[in-house]
Amino acid sequence: MGDPVSPQGSDNELLMVRDFPVSQRDVYEAWTTLSRATDWWGPEGFIVPADRVSIDGRVGGTYRACMVNTITGDELWWGGTLQELDPPNHLAMTQEWQAADGSAASAETLISVDLAAHDDGTRMTFRQGPFSDRRDIEGHQAGWNSSFDRLSRYLARHRSG
């Protein structure tokens, strides 16, 4: 059920591995289908309203999204460019925090997601980096851990037959 595995990444990279009891296609589509991604993107306490997301779902296409804090209403925007799409095995995209006007508010990182069959389900290997310091890695790790917990619950509810 989205159990975390604890691998070791490089000093400036976040590496996370999760196992899900669903098909690679289910996990891939949760990442790449807008109506599915808005159901789990963002840590607990945040929502990603469908009207605050845009995705040009092709290699070279851009995406942009906004997480809204459900208590304070604060908005956190991010976006990037889709770099690689190999359904249902792999996807990669750049990511940067953005101001509301779309201007960059952080350094750009690369996110890669590899999906492989594993124990009657799928092993997701997630990488993001490079980061400038350990604190930034730890902040992203906390956010992604919470998001991946939400992804696990989403996949359990919407598993294909």
From TrEMBL:
Superkingdom of the organism of origin: Bacteria
Transmembrane segments annotated in the record for this chain: none
InterPro entries according to UniProt: ASHA1/2-like_C, START-like_dom_sf
Domain Activator of Hsp90 ATPase homologue 1/2-like C-terminal: 22-155
Pfam families, sorted: AHSA1
Family: Belongs to the AHA1 family.
The protein's name in its UniProt record: SRPBCC domain-containing protein
